[in-house]
Design brief:
The structure is a single chain. The protein has twelve helices and 19 strands. The longest helix has 21 residues. Strands 8-7-6-5-4-3-2-10-9 form a nine-stranded parallel beta sheet. Strands 1, 11, 14, 15, 16, 17, 18 and 19 form an eight-stranded antiparallel beta sheet that branches. Strands 12-13 form a two-stranded antiparallel ribbon. It is elongated, with a radius of gyration of 24 Å. It folds into two domains: about 210 residues, TIM Barrel (Alpha-Beta Barrel); about 120 residues, Lyase, Ornithine Decarboxylase, Chain A, domain 1 (Beta Barrel), CATH 2.40.37. The two termini are about 15 Å apart. It has about 375 residues and is of the alpha/beta class.
Length: about 375
């Protein structure tokens, strides 16, 4: 079937992705571990089906995912790497993919018993990672408070403990907090080794992209890296090596260009009014495509056309964005527009686009995922 043109697309540079994965794999080795590529949420919206085989060829030894659809796709692609589920799954989720060797996450006795019962029913224990909280609060057992519960989980029939993991809460924004949490992680590891000698044979992992670059001394059995493999920093305070380059471009096009007289208003609610004649370009995507008003409405954001920055004006419509191109007399219908990524020598990053909106760069990037190109 002929693939119809769309108003926008997300382009992914798979060659760059392979290089980035290789760089992160080397960093994982340096910290005494291996690389787990986090490709949950369909690879942050960039396409798990295309990314995973490339990662597998460049040093990735495990995949970090959440949903059963992603887990099934990894196995359907013929990939043999370990699969870590990065959130607690409910019973039916666990049972549905138990035959695929998924390593589940557990942290409390009640939930662990649900997972264990599935292992007992199958006659094969479910491999699990014990989640230990060091400050993020959303999940995980808390030590030493839950030390007895940990022992019950470790001894539970139907489970096969393979690792203990923790997750930093603020590694992208606060190095001191992260160092404190890493100290908690090390103390928890020592406590578990002393109390339950069985844990001495387990993997322990806590490293993510941000912590890798902010805690040089970090040691971890696995480096769980998502945004780093995509070539973007987890946050403005984290500086990546130049060898890591962003792999995506979110692209649309100029639909029409027209000139409005001084005093004309633009968009729903007439939130923008020009005080002089305005050359206005209407673009071929809108908030239904991921270009939310939260990002663009009166936030001073720009797009790239012909390698130059032009400001968005007026509210974003469901499938249109309006841009002031008065300073671009050469711009015409059909010109490529970049919302995220590079065009010529200019670029717009996900954190730049998120700034001042209350959103994270991760949210901005994943919002455009359904526009993936062929």
């Amino acid at each position: 079937m002929h693939k119809l043109s769309r108003g926008g697309r997300v382009d992914v540079d798979l060659e760059r992705y392979g290089v980035n994965v290789g760089v992160m794999a080397e960093l994982a080795t340096a910290m005494g571990g291996r690389l787990c590529c986090v490709i949950k949420a369909n690879g942050y919206g960039l396409g798990l089906e295309r990314l995973a085989p490339v990662a597998a060829k460049h040093g990735c030894e495990a995949f970090g995912v959440v949903d059963n659809a992603d887990i099934t796709m990894l196995r359907d692609l013929g990939l043999k790497q370990r699969i870590f589920r990065l959130r607690h799954a409910y019973g039916d989720e666990v049972a549905e993919v138990a035959h695929l060797g998924v390593e589940e996450l557990v942290s409390d006795v009640d939930h662990a018993e649900i997972v264990a019962s599935i292992g007992r029913k199958r006659g094969h224990p479910i491999p699990v990672h014990l989640d230990v909280d060091i400050g993020i609060g959303r999940t995980g057992c808390y030590l030493p408070q839950d030390l007895i519960d940990v022992g019950e989980i470790l001894a539970m029939e139907g489970l096969k403990p393979v690792a203990v993991m923790s997750h930093f809460s603020s590694a992208d924004i606060d190095t001191e907090i992260t160092k404190h949490q890493y100290h908690m992680y090390q103390s928890n590891k020592a406590l578990l080794h002393h109390t339950y000698p069985i844990t001495q044979s387990l993997e322990f992992h806590c490293a993510n992209t941000a912590a890798t670059f902010t805690i040089p001394e970090i040691q971890s059995s696995w480096l769980r890296s998502g945004i780093g493999t995509y070539g973007e920093t987890p946050g403005p305070a984290v500086h990546l090596p130049l060898s890591l380059r962003f792999i995506a471009r979110v692209v649309c096009f100029v639909g029409t260009v027209r000139t409005l007289p001084a005093g004309a208003t633009v968009g729903y609610g007439m939130t923008y009014q020009n005080d002089k004649p305005l050359r206005l370009a209407t673009l071929t995507v809108g908030y239904a495509d991921g270009a939310w008003n939260t990002i663009y409405d009166r936030t001073g954001k720009h797009v790239l056309i012909r390698g130059r920055h032009f400001p968005v004006v007026g509210r974003v419509s469901m499938d249109m964005i309006t841009v002031d191109v008065t300073e671009g007399p050469d711009i015409v219908s059909g010109d490529e527009v970049v919302l995220i990524g590079e065009q010529g020598d200019a670029s717009i990053g996900i954190h730049e686009l998120a700034a001042g909106t209350g959103l994270m760069g991760y949210e901005v990037l994943s919002s455009f995922g359904h526009m993936l190109g062929p």
